[in-house]
Amino acid sequence: MNWDVDQTTGGRVTVRDVLIDAERRLATADIPSPNVDAAEIIAFALGVRRNRMILQDLVTPEQRVRVEQLMTKRLSRVPLQHLLGTAAFRHIELQVGPGVFIPRPETELVVEAGIRELRELAAPARIAVDLCAGSGAVALSIGVEVENSRVYAVEVDDEAVRWTRRNLAAQETALTAARSRVDVVQDDAVLVADAGHRLARLAGQVAVIVSNPPYIPARMVPREPEVRDYEPKVALFAGEDGLDVVRGVLRTAAILLKPGGMVVIEHADVQGADAGLAGVAGLAQSLVADEELSLLANLPIGQIIWREVVDRKDFNGLPRFTIARRAS
Questions:
Q1: Would you say 261 and 206 are in contact if contact means Cβ atoms under 8 Å apart?
Q2: Separation CA 205–CA 209 (nearest Å)
Q3: What are the pLDDT tens digits along the chain (328 aa)?
C-alpha cells in the first residue's frame, strides 16, 4: 500500500487500510495467525485494545511510523509477545520479553488439571509447587484461581526469575483478593527438595505439583524461528532425549508430594504414552524408590512411586501432559 495516497479514501489512511496491508504482508511472509498479529500490532501502536479499534478512524503519520517499526520486527520473526511486552494466559496477563519462555495456550490445560485437584481440597491442604516456573504463568494462575492456596514458584535461571518476580508484583492485588500467596523460590527444580534446599521442609506435605519443564532433545532444532532464535535455551533443551529435567521433576515430586498427591507434567506430543520409556508416562510408571528416595520420600526400597499414571491430550488432540499420583 502507498502510505501517501489511498485512492479508496481520497488520500486518507484509515485503520482498516493499515490493517488490510499488515495482514497481507504477514501472510505473504508465512507468519502464523497473520490476522491476529496484524490487529494486535496496530492496536498496540494506536494505544488501544484490539476490541476497541474503530476501523474507520484515521491513522496519524506518527502512528503509521510506529506500525511500520513493529511490522519490520514481526516480519523478521521477533515474537509478537516480545513486541507487545505481554502474553495472555487463562485469566491473567503476564509481562514477558527476552530471557523468559512465552507461555503457550497448551499449558492452560495443564494448569487446569492442577487447579481442579486443589479446589477439591480443604483450604489448609491447598499447597502447590510450580517447578520450572519461568514467567510464573502456572503458579500465578493457581494462586488467583484457587482461593486460600499457597504456591511455590521454583525457577533457577536469573533472567527468568526477574520476570517471575515482576509478574508476581503485578498480580499481588488479585492474589490478595483470592487470599492466596505465591512465593518465588530461586533454585533448581531437580534439587529444591533435597536437604539444605528451600523446599526440603515441605517433604510429604504438597498436594499438587505442576511443571512445564524443558523437554526438547539437545540435538533437535525447533522449526519455528520465534522459538529457535528468541526463546531462552535453558527453557527448551534437556539432555540427549529431552527428558533429563523430567526425571528430576519426577524425583522432586516424589519427595514433596503427600501420599496420593498429584503431579502434572507437560511434554512434547512425541513423548506421550505411546513412546514407552521415551515418554513421560513410561518414565513415571518405571520409577521405583532407590535407597536415597526411600529415605527422602519415606517409601520402601523398590516400591513403585507413581500410580494412576495417565496421559492427556491438548486442544489439537495431541498427547500433551502426564498426570500421576504419588503412591502411599
A1: yes
A2: 11
A3: 444 434 444 456 899 999 999 999 999 999 999 999 999 999 999 999 888 888 878 999 999 999 999 999 999 999 999 999 999 999 999 999 999 999 999 999 999 999 999 999 999 999 999 999 999 999 999 999 999 999 999 999 999 999 999 999 999 999 999 999 999 999 999 999 999 999 999 999 999 999 999 999 999 999 899 999 999 999 999 999 999 999 999 999 999 999 999 999 999 999 999 999 999 999 999 999 999 999 888 889 999 999 999 999 998 999 999 999 999 8
Query: Element (H or E) spanning 186, and its range?
Result: strand 181-186
Choose among 255, 258, 223, 249: nearest CA to 321.
Answer: 249
Residues 126, 131: Cα–Cα separation, whole Å:
16
Find out whether 280 and 246 touch, Cβ atoms under 8 Å. Answer: yes
Nine-digit cell string for 185: 523460590
- Residues composing the chain: 328
Tell me the C-alpha to C-alpha distance, in Å, between residue 142 and each of 114, 139, 175: 8, 5, 10
CATH numbers and ranges of domains, the chain: 7-76 (no CATH), 90-326 (3.40.50.150)
Closest CA to 217 of 237, 247, 190, 244: 237
Q: Is 169 exposed, middle or buried (0-12, 13-18, 19+ CB in 10 A)?
A: exposed
CB atoms within 10 A of CB 186: 17
Nearest to 247, CA basis, from 322, 307, 313:
322
Residues 41-57, buried b or exposed e (16+ Cβ, 10 A)? Answer: bbbbbbeeeeeebeeee
What number of other Cβ atoms are within 10 A of residue 298's Cβ?
13
Measured at the CA of 197, the angle between CA 192 and CA 199, to 5 degrees, comes to 60
